[in-house]
Design a protein that fits this description.
The protein is α+β, with helices and mostly antiparallel strands. It has 5 helices and 17 strands. Strands 1, 2, 3, 4, 7, 10, 11, 14 and 16 form a 9-stranded mixed sheet that branches. The longest helix is centred in the C-terminal third of the chain and has 21 residues. The two termini are 29 Å apart.
């Protein structure tokens, strides 16, 4: 597949930006479609922290999605979405309800309180900053690695935080003809990250020496896992496409994109993960739903690998680049 587009910000009508607090080890990422995209969502993990996912169901009457917020801070980080909505309202972006506009903002959070400063979480101020960075800098590609929602992300926590590794925010864009499907993901999984093409491990639980990768799934199957911090893991993602989809079709694409997690993370969708995938479809290109889904799965699985490869060591955690 072609890679003429390097960032989802090059898709017409799509804007993305980060707010990062490196000292506290947290942040948020926003993907904005001012004209309104058709939205879908799939929540597959056992411990999600989400906002406005019910209205994305095909049977609900709201037909547009203006922004998706990926945030750190656990459930506290949902406050960032309020700031995004406030900034969009100031710019006149949202559904016209006669007395003003109401921006439709969905979001999901990951748990990063175990690194940096646990008392600091993304707030509405951070959501405003991320939105301003997105809309006021349309020509700048989205930064990846230890930024935004990926600032405090880590993986391989099945043997405890001391043997986990640093990951971050990843992105990938895939093109087939005029169809474009891109993905942004913050990877904070309990499991290990694998290259979706070679199946080689990239990051995850370290062995007892701290210098080599072990295997989370093997440890789990052998009842060696301790998991001292339960329900503290999540991979949260947003898939963006220029395809024309109905809400039901966008939901189906989100469901199929869960395959990307299985291709690049092991184990995944556990009781200790809150895995969520949002879809935003801008509606320019006619395409079969299965084609959109297949291209989106490829983009998301490669974005997951990118989240591990683009991260650098921080908060006492090694990254893939250190091994």
């Amino acid at each position: 597949m072609a890679h003429a587009i390097e960032s989802i910000t090059q898709i017409p009508g799509i804007y993305a930006g980060n707010s990062t607090d490196s000292a506290a080890g947290t942040g948020c990422t926003v993907i904005v479609c001012p004209a309104g995209a058709t939205g879908g969502v799939d929540v597959r993990g056992g411990a999600p922290a989400t906002r406005e996912t019910d209205l994305l169901r095909p049977e609900e009457t709201v037909s547009v999605l203006h922004a998706v917020v990926l945030s750190g801070g656990s459930a506290y980080g949902l406050s960032a979405s309020c700031g995004v909505a406030e900034e969009l309202e100031r710019r006149g972006i949202g559904i016209d309800v006669g007395v003003g506009v109401v921006p439709i903002v969905s979001g999901a959070c990951l748990f990063d309180l175990a690194v940096g400063d646990a008392s600091v979480r993304p707030t509405s101020v951070d959501g405003i900053e991320a939105t301003m960075n997105a809309l006021d800098n349309p020509d700048i590609p989205l930064e990846r690695g230890n930024v935004g929602a990926g600032t405090g992300a880590s993986v391989g926590k099945i043997a405890g935080p001391e043997r986990s590794m640093k990951t971050g925010l990843g992105e990938d864009v895939e093109i087939s003809g005029n169809l474009v499907c891109g993905a942004v993901t913050a990877v904070n999984a309990v499991g290990d990250i694998f290259d979706p093409q070679t199946h080689e491990p990239i990051a995850g639980v370290l062995d007892e020496s701290g210098n080599l990768l072990a295997a989370s799934n093997d440890m789990l199957c052998a009842f060696q896992a301790t998991m001292p911090l339960s329900r503290t893991n999540t991979t949260i993602s947003c898939v963006v496409t220029n395809a024309r989809l109905s809400k039901a079709e966008a939901t189906k694409v989100a469901q199929m994109c869960a395959d990307a997690y299985a291709h690049a993370i092991s184990p995944t969708h556990t009781t200790n993960d809150g895995d969520t995938v949002f879809v935003m479809a801008t509606g320019e290109i006619e395409s079969m739903v299965d084609v959109v889904a297949a291209l989106s799965v490829r983009a998301l699985e490669r974005a997951i690998a990118d989240a591990a490869r683009s991260a650098t060591s921080a908060y006492g955690l090694k990254a893939a680049c250190d091994l």
